[in-house]
Amino acid sequence: xxxxxxxxxxxxxxxxxxxxxxxxxxxxxxxxxxxxxxxxxxxxxxxxxxxxxxxxxxxxxxxxxxxxxxxxxxxxxxxxxxxxxxxxxxxxxxxxxxxxxxxxxxxxxxxxxxxxxxxxxxxxxxxxxxxxxxxxxxxxxxxxxxxxxxxxxxxxxxxxxxxxxxxxxxxxxxxxxxxxxxxxxxxxxxxxxxxxxxxxxxxxxxxxxxxxxxxxxxxxxxxxxxxxxxxxxxxxxxxxxxxxxxxxxxxxxxxxxxxxxxxxxxxxxxxxxxxxxxxxxxxxxxxxxxxxxxxxxxxxxxxxxxxxxxxxxxxxxxxxxxxxxxxxxxxxxxxxxxxxxxxxxxxxxxxxxxxxxxxxxxxxxxxxxxxxxxxxxxxxxxxxxxxxxxxxxxxxxxxxxxxxxxxxxxxxxxxxxxxxxxxxxxxxxxxxxxxxxxxxxxxxxxxxxxxxxxxxxxxxxxxxxxxxxxxxxxxxxxxxxx
Amino acid sequence: xxxxxxxxxxxxxxxxxxxxxxxxxxxxxxxxxxxxxxxxxxxxxxxxxxxxxxxxxxxxxxxxxxxxxxxxxxxxxxxxxxxxxxxxxxxxxxxxxxxxxxxxxxxxxxxxxxxxxxxxxxxxxxxxxxxxxxxxxxxxxxxxxxxxxxxxxxxxxxxxxxxxxxxxxxxxxxxxxxxxxxxxx
Lengths: 482, 185
Prior knowledge:
Radius of gyration of chain B: 21 Å
Strand content of chain B: 15-25%
Distance between the termini of chain A: 38 Å
Distance between the termini of chain B: 64 Å
Structural class of chain B: alpha+beta
Strand order of the largest sheet of chain A: 2-1-3-4
Oligomer: heterodimer
Largest interface: A-B, 66 and 66 residues
Mean pLDDT of chain A: 90
Order of helices and strands of chain B: HEEHHHHEE
Low-confidence stretches of chain A: none
């Protein structure tokens, strides 16, 4: 058991988020783009200048190295370094050094701001920038790849796993504190209490706040409490299930959208972090198009310099926007992604559980050809697989031993699934809302398989049996492997 | 291969580090940098009414009395950051009074285990660090300057009130307002 867990853990570390250097390069650009245009490049001199002198009460660890907030000149210099550092990371110039410097300086400088009592929300974002600077994300789509030899750089997939664990832990801590402080009591709703605190004390009364202020439907608020706690704690529980982890990142986007509409809190800092876990799903055709564009823009020195200059002007204009414009950009991003998350949840849940954006998968379902239940399930799959991705074969054609007939077998490329896992792996690839059945994967395998075995043993008794194996109709014949 | 082994070892130690860091944050105070997210512990309500605290600055210039609320004073800074700063500066001795019923139980258990002396020394002193007189004076000067800039007035006195507002859970109407603490800046 321990050996199996160890193997599973080590496999997860190195294989959970397999992606190419081109996908990673595109992620770098998207990550920094969101950071610059929607979160904002941190400028500390403006913030720190408003802080009371000598009011320095740092939390344990980092801040206690210093005795006071440094002079304003320090923040002015670091602002210039950050200004250039983020731009260099965007275009991929001295990418590793730029990323590490920008992330480190941001983390250090935020330490001074948080020393006055503000809550640290954004550390994961800068931590991701720091960690991903070691991932080899400059191998493609970077100036480094033109002027230096980046061919030997290796993509460090394990950093994805490290960050997924960190993000899962971060959400878990928020949920745990809610749980132990009694959020799940039924007499009152904490979501409502916090909403009212924001509405009256913080005077956040925009968007749908007025609607929610008048909403006295207790069940809605109770669901809000339970959803918040389970969603936050669940984030850690699904860390080792890559597709469920992606599902939770989309759930987080939905959550941030609701918080903005209800409480007017525009939290977009983690959006680019969530994107990281979707990187392996970037389709090949997008990568190829991006490569063509990159090649065109950088094919000679003049074009390259003009491209950098245009980007720099664009970047500088964006940086010069005031806080109000940032808020509009931020809210627009949250709203758009909120609508996108609703679209995926309601219309295209299949996207939530994709394994990869590029692989052409071989999907074969092997079933008991004389069982009415199994035949019914095959017909059910055919009706919800309009692009005909699934192929079918009867167990009678594959095996002689009748003992093998006690489970459906699902082969997805090289991986073979049995029993309840096979059933759930199939459902996550169907059209409609059926992929949500995959959430049952959270139930421990022995329990799922026990229930599966009871149904499998009694399937002839409960659903009947045919004398001969199913014969596919002429139009379905090419989908059956005989 | 050797490198992979180091990575695996890192992945075995990392969860232990996370657990240790969570325990320290829950018992003493969240360090910085920290991989934790704000939890927002329970606001005390009994299902009929709920209690929220706020601050009010009463500004007296001659015979004229005016008020400034925290939102106006803080803008464009974070109101939450400023309210925490005020709590530390002026109402630090009362910090434990802000605990909700569950936090009170939780910390009384810890106190029982480690004793009052160590509880004060290793938990309260780090959770709610006291400011020295010079720090308080600097902060007061900063607050007064800010009020002066916002209201465009000079030569005035300021009284800071910490208010407990009790609202009805259903209608949200204010049931009572009580000044729980006040200090002259």
